[in-house]
Structure formats: C-alpha cells, structure tokens
Amino acid sequence: MEKFFINGGKKLFGKIKVDGAKNSLLPVLAATIMVDGEVRLKNVPKYTDVMNMCVILEYLGVLVRWQQDDLILDASKIEEHTIPTALAGALRSSIFALGPLLCRHKIAKVAYPGGCEIGLRPIDLHLSGLRTLGTRIVEKNGYIYANGESMEGCDIILDFSSVGATENLMMAGVLTKGITRIFNPAKEPEIVDLADFLNACGAKVEGAGTSMIYIEGVEKLHGCEFEVIPDRIAAGTYLLMCAMCGGEVEIEGFLPYHNQVLLAKLCQTACQIDIKDDKIKVKSEGTLDAFGEVETAVYPGLPTDLQPQIMALQAVSHGFCLIVENLFEARFKHVPELIKMGADIRFRSNVCVIKGKDKLYGAEVNSPDLRGGVALVMAGMKAEGYTTISGIELIDRGYYKLEEKLSALGVDIKRIDD
Known about the structure:
By secondary structure, the chain is α/β, with parallel strands linked by helices. It has 13 helices and 24 strands. Strands 22-23-1-24 form a 4-stranded mixed sheet. A 4-stranded mixed sheet has the order 2-15-17-16, covered by helices on one side. A 4-stranded mixed sheet has the order 4-5-3-14, with helices on one face. Helix 6 packs parallel to helix 7 (189-200). It is elongated. It starts with a strand and ends with a strand.
C-alpha cells in the first residue's frame, strides 16, 4: 500500500489542467458494450475506476487497447453476459453494464456493485425502471438475474433524480423497440455527456439535462470518436485548494456553468476569480470568510462530491459554517480525521457545524473514501508540519497522478510506500 507524505504551508502557483470526467467515462465505457464497431475515447486518464471498468469489459469480451492517452474499444465479438462478484465488488459503476448487457444479449447476470462506503446508494431505481421496460428480474445469492426478451419502450417515472438510474435506463432504452420517456431524470452534465456519446454512435436521445428524456429505439449503434467533458468535481477541488492554501493558479478545463453554486460561494469571500472560456484564474491570500451555510443537492445544486473539500476549507475560514448533507448518510467519515489535524467540527446525523481556526497541524490520517481522502490532502497542504495520508488507493479512483499535478504547483507532496 502507498501513502501521501505532505509538508504543508506552501502557497500554490502555476497552471493545472482538469482531466476527463470520471463520472462521464464510466457510463460511456459501459455503453460501448452495445456498439457494433470501434470506439475511440480521447484523452482518457487512467483512474483506478476506469482501469477496473476496462477489466470488466475485457472479461465480457470487449477488445480494449490503449494508444497513448486514447482508449480504443471494440465490442463486436462480445459473448459473455455475466459480471462476477470479484469484478463488480471493486466498482460501484459495474451496475451500469446491466442495461447495455440486456440490450446486447437480452439476458444478464450481474453481481451487486461495490465502491466507496458513503451510504446505502440502493439500486432499486435501476431495477424498478428496467422492470417497467418489461425486464424480468430475480435477485438471489448476491446476483441480479435479468431477462430482457420482452423489453419495450414505455414511460418511466423516477421517484428520485438518480444519476446512475437515469444513465442505466437511458442506455437500456437506446436499443429497445419503441419510444422510452424518462420523467424526473437527473440533469447532471454527465447525463448530457452520455447522451451526446450515444447520439454520436447513432442513437436517438433528446432532452438530456431537462425534466424529460425522450429516446427512440434504434436497431444498432456504430463506432465513433469521442472526448468526455472535463471533470467538474476535480475542477472544483483544484479551485478550493487554491482558495484554501493561497497563491495564484490558472485552471484549464473549468466549465463555469458546471460549478455555479461553488463559484457563487467563493465570490462572496476574498478570492479573486477571473473566468475566460474554459479557463479560470483564482487568486487567494488563503484567509477567507466562512460560507455560513452549505447544503448539498442534486444538480444544479451543490454537489455532494464537493462537500468534504468544502469542509476542509471551512476548517480554516473565519467564522462558522453549517453543512447539511442531503444525499448520502455516511458522508462525514472524514470528520474525525480532520479533527485529528486540529479542526473544530461538531456533527450529528447529516449536519456539521465548523468553527474556523487559524491553523491546522500535520498528523497521520486515513482516507475514508475518494472525496474525503482528497479533503485530507487539502488539509495536509494547509497544515503546519508533516501529514501522512494512508488509503490513497481510494483517492486514485478519481484523481490521476494527483501528486504530480500538485507538485507542479509548488506543493511538497510525495507518494511513498507503506
């Protein structure tokens, strides 16, 4: 196992480029199961989650190869329709393969997914939507057995705007005969990106990003060349890092309409922010006023995936901040680790109160999950002294070569063996 070793207290200067969105790449990779022909995905970072999804695709029979930073996939000879526990357990997004497998083979056997332990994140909406489409589903012995021979386009109403369920059902509808309409879908940019990919392959998907997605089933999909959007969570993380540590950084690949709520919060503080096209320059002295109140919500609200990073910033901001986590019931696992570093945080259920302090102090801490782990990296960057963060394989799931990117900005950070 590896750790991050950080000598804190350095301001950040320079440029950083945002990689492709992890949460776009995973459903797009799953969607290639349905494609007859070669798909070339441009500029793909080798996140651990992406590599795990590639392992699943290869097990199913997809030909996967890298050409520098491009990922080339060919599912024309795919035969397998089962994803075993050993593969699904490492990746929450393995469930995305269920809809595409049903379209490809009309049957699927998929083990229950794994991933970060930030809450229950049930897949009920995935399964109920597929049942509405006519899929027969049996759950037993840790597997989902699905038969889609009777699938037919129809209206699906989601009880909650689930990103994963929206993506799975959108993919399932693409090769299903008839018209499928998804009401109350998620509206995240990654939903729109998946629809753009499917349409580039010959699908007929309209309305992604709105309150109703309209899908006209087609007979087959063809290959294409595609590049996913920049990762808005990574972009927001880098912005928060500079605000917290101080300095002056230009972030390339920052799409402002993907992070409007975060920008509005930061613009109320002492940060200087200049936006031009997909680049943002941020200048900070590293001493900001607290946000007051923060509440996570589905898009276009504040992403739950930025809540831990915001908490790290609030731990060294002037004043009090109340954070309400509305989406995942176990998303405060980073709090005890921040407290080890001197943060003044009180929490109960889904609410945290943070009193900003002048300083944090280096400590030995453990990454509880992907976003909580990167929040600890931020705290270590700001803290006096040395911080050692274990469990960084969780951080690698969504940040590629993070230590190299941060070192280029002047951060004293190393990846070391345990």
